[in-house]
Amino acid sequence: MPILTEEQQGIQHQLYIEGHTFYKSGQYQKAIDSLNKALAMSNQHANSHFIKGLALDCLNKTQEALEEFNTTILQNDTHADGWYYLGLMSYKKAETAEPQDAYNHLQVAVTCIDRAVSLNKNHPAAEMMLEEVKKMQAEKKALMESQSGSMQKENVDDLNRAIAESLKSLEQKKESDAQKDAIFQVQCALAREKTDNIFKKYNGDTSEIQKKIDRMQKKLDAFKAEGYQGDEETKNKIAIKAFTIINLTKELQRLARTTPKSSIEKTSSLKFEKRM
Questions:
Q1: Fewer CB within 10 Å, N- or C-terminus of the chain?
Q2: Cα torsion 173, 1, 220, 65: sign
Q3: Do 110 and 83 form a contact (C-beta atoms < 8 A)?
Q4: Are 101 and 92 in contact (CB under 8 A)?
Q5: Is the pTM of this model over 0.90?
Q6: How far apart are CA 33 and CA 150, in angstroms?
Q7: How far apart are CA 57 and CA 197, in angstroms?
Q8: What phi-psi label fits residue 4: left (phi over 0), alpha (psi between -120 and 50 degrees) or beta?
Q9: Residue 274 — φ and ψ, nearest 5°?
Q10: What is the phi/psi pair of residue 238, to 5°?
Q11: Distance between alpha carbon 112 and the CA centroid of its chain, in Å?
Q12: Dihedral over Cα of 180, 97, 252, 135: its sign
């Protein structure tokens, strides 16, 4: 990433102000265009990503907005509004999802909004939304259990155990704090969503899934190598990505071993999202 001169930083700031002004006046596409110009100069500008996410949300582009808010908190993990809106986008996705997918989205929403409240004690909107999300999560859980018995609950418990094991590993490496833990929990929940999508896409074909696992293992090895060569901040980011891949791989292997092919609904339109 190029280091901007003082003059270039001034230009980028003006583009950010321009985008923010367009957003406040309801000119959302113009806001996005200005913010894209600012981010083209340097992608490391959390506030530009945040305002771009707000504009995308106003255009009903929930997934794109979610990605911008995710980038916001990865670049600035104390950005309370970034955490709040990341949770809000996950909540929106849950409103139209099937019970299991909705529950996963709500897991992300709870983690994010709770983090927003912890960062900003005077955030009544976040506190109210947190209660609403927890209420909806309880409803989805009851619906899942009534539809599928204990199987769905076991899947959620597996994910929680995987998160706990991974966080324990991070703590042993002395590369974990509250911020990284919260980010990692979000990444784990997103990883679980990916595993379900991959398995549906390949209709339970374990040979194709194994190819995915092999490619992820190579990516993991590359992340580890990069982490050992980088500075402390780089190592922390690599650790988060690496354990996300580990969790995703474990889930794929478990699904490949335990899920009957006949029980998977073929959904060829689902695509693996390259977030890592």
A1: N
A2: positive
A3: no
A4: no
A5: no
A6: 48
A7: 24
A8: beta
A9: -85, 90
A10: -65, -40
A11: 10
A12: positive
What are the structure tokens assigned to 200, written together? 């549906």
C-beta separation of 54 from 66 below 8 A: no
157 and 186 Cβ atoms separated by less than 8 Å:
no
Written in H, E and C, the secondary structure of the chain is: CCCCCHHHHHHHHHHHHHHHHHHHCCCHHHHHHHHHHHHHHCCCCHHHHHHHHHHHHHCCCHHHHHHHHHHHHHHCCCCHHHHHHHHHHHHHHHHCCCHHHHHHHHHHHHHHHHHHHHHCCCCHHHHHHHHHHHHHHHHHHHHHHHHHCCHHHHHHHHHHHHHHHHHHHHHHCCCCCHHHHHHHHHHHHHHHHHHHHHHHHCCCCHHHHHHHHHHHHHHHHHHHHHHHHCCHHHHHHHHHHHHHHHHHHHHHHHHHHHCCHHHCCCCCCCCCCCCC
Q: What percent of the chain has pLDDT over 90?
A: 38
Determine the Cα–Cα distance for residues 15 and 94; give it in Å rounded to an integer: 34
The distance of Cα 226 from the centroid of its chain, to the nearest Å, equals: 22
Cβ–Cβ contacts within 10 Å for residue 57, how many? 20
Rounded to an integer, what distance in angstroms lies between the CA atom of residue 61 and that of residue 41? 24
In the chain, where the domains are located: 151-276
Is a pLDDT exceeding 70 seen at residue 9? yes
Model confidence at 268, in pLDDT bands (50, 70, 90)?
Answer: very low
